[in-house]
Amino acid sequence: MSAESAAQAQSGMITIEVVDNPSFWDYAGEYVYVGIIVLFVGLFLWRRWAMRKK
Amino acid sequence: MHTDFEKRYARTPVRRPSEKILNGMRDASRDLARRLQQRPGRLPGLSVFETMFTTEQRLAELRASDRRVAGTYCYFVPEELLRAFDVTPVRLCSGFTETIAPSEEVLPRDICPLVKSSFGSAVVGGGYLDECDVIILPTSCDAKTKLGEYLADYKPVWLLNLPSTKDYAIVKPFWVQEIKRLKTKLENWTGRKLDRKKLKDAIGLFQKRSKVYRELYELRRAHPGVISHQDWLMAIQASFYADVPTWIAQAENLVQEIRKAVVRPVPDLKVKLLLTGAPVIWPNYKILNIIDELGAAVVADEMCSGHQRLWDYAEPDEWTTDGMLEALASRYLFPATCPCFTGTCDRVDKLLKMAEDFNVDGVIYHDLRLCQLFDMERDLVSRVLKERKMPMLTLHTDYGQEDVEQLKTRVEAFLEIIR
Amino acid sequence: MVWHKITWSRRVVQVLSFLFLFYGATLLNLKPQEIKWYSLDGKNQKMAELLYANPTWTQPFQTFLPGRSCRFAGTTGTFRGCLMYFLSDTLTWRPPWKVILPSLALLLGLMVLLARFWCGWLCPIGFLSEMLNEARRFTGLARIKFPAWWLATLKAAGYALTAALLFSAWAISWSFVAWSVKKPLYLATCQICPSKLITPLLTGFPVMINLQFPGASTALLVTLFVLLVMFTLLYFSSAVMKRSWCKLCPGGVILSFFNRGSFLTKEKDALRCTKCAICADACPMETLAVYEEKSRVIVDHTQCIQCYRCVDLCPEKKCLTVKFLGLPIFKS
Predict the structure, then answer these.
(1) At CA B203, angle to CA B201 and CA B209, rounded to 5?
(2) Which residue of A has its CA nearest to C50?
């Protein structure tokens, strides 16, 4: 843990640790989030397209 | 009092008081009233509206009271504002054929009968116009605009400068100014400032009036046969003269009566028609009577002397004096489907909506002779209706009784097509 | 007089939202460390650390909302900040995607869900500006109407301001940009926002307007300060002009892109409309779109803050309908 992170931990904050040699599952959380974002953007664009003439 | 007409060249007002004509008018009212009374199953609550025309009770009331009276024409005079100044509004648009002949002494012959008849009541006198302290006249059509000049010989006339489009961004600020000018005139006349509370009460009262009317409308929509259209128009046109709270009470009573009446099934109407076009005003219910006689029925109308008058209400976004005046400006301009504005679409929309609401079989287009505006709007209306497979009949007529037989033949042929 | 159902329910929601966003931490006794909400790191089961630069103070919910959940609500506030704060800060620091993804997903979701419903119903700053207007109504003073060209100018200025703020936030991360420019432009969005003055006033959070950052360009500092003064004046003019600041607000500009296409739609039955112009009179954003639309069914437009005042006042039954995913929730 770096000095900065230690200071943050003292102030009540928790840092995310950096993983060496990451596997697919180390990034699973991010894939989920990216998926959610793509979903939202897709949903928005689809609705926009669907109501283009209404 | 400030008037809108200068008097460089004064014209002596022509006055032809005639008991014969007044009696003729009374007879016309009474004849029509009798005709309406004969209708089987007529609701008793309607007779109070009828007395407005058959008796001169209200006229005597106005004569006796010390309240100021303002005569109005058309759709566009903000009556709430008048009421806030304790001024009683009386709508002077006339439907009497008797006063047309005396008016022709002054007016040219080729003017629409409504304007001639209205002006004639000034010439003959003895009616509501005599009781008015001021006349407020919107410059809706050419004839009305010029009518002001003629009426100015008899009474002080204030013009409301009506725009000819309904483009909100352009017209609203102008029309608000016009309403505020009217407010200033009223302030100068009555000698007191506009009271916010009073205006609020007046707007509230008129909102109530149109709520009651909407209730009546919904009831009629569900049971079109419960009341004849002559009675319907008569009830609406009683509000031309009636005190507003009294009218509301009477209309509420009518609502109750209709509620009771429709418990039993109302006989279904064979042919339902929608009336549109130039105003049909008491006692000129000629075309309604003809349609009635031929076994069809008008179930709804879209006229400034009918549905339009009571349907809309002012809804201020904020109840400040300015906010209320703005709301009044909107209410007395934008919902109007008067042909004096360019753009017939609003009227076509309203017609289609009403045709759908009442599930009508046809549309009657009442075209007063010499009203170019309604005449010119007819083309688009008929085209749109034709597209929607809705038959339409134009009745080109005036206030006289000469063409009754001819109209009858035309309506009969039209009803044949529908059936 | 008619009981305006939608307006009243909106007021209730606005008060609750205002209390929650500005005083939530105090009122509900929330403590930052105890809250583990959607900004979780899925793998480590830990709070995602979002204070990448200066973790001196914090709010319970370590994330952002599209409305003005202003960061200057300080320790009494509930959220970290608004949409513009997030975008600006993210563009400046460009932290790893892992860190910003949760917030980005949440913001996008909320925007697609509600769009400018945030402005009309949930934004505490918008609510306060409406309260200023209510105060004026109470006195009976007349409202001043924005002329059309001024409305158009505010709209265009809103787009320009948003673009400029986002661009400056990105530009100050470039290494070759001088420190004298970087320093004053850091979080320029907050430095010109009237909320920076109003929120601390209400919540007691200490904020300084510093005109003398060491080494900062005075010209830029003064420019930002002048803008702050102008926008604050614009904000307070909402006492006499409806929702004046909202017509320019950069957060609103970003939300406005989502108005058409969000889950909330406002539909108009053109045949039922009598063109009585009550909707045009009532609109707090003073737009004519709902009034003038006569062919399309969906009458959402970018300026609409979804307050549904028009739906509330419309005198024609079922003429205007608000639908959430096709489900009608409000009808005129």
Answers:
(1) 105
(2) A15
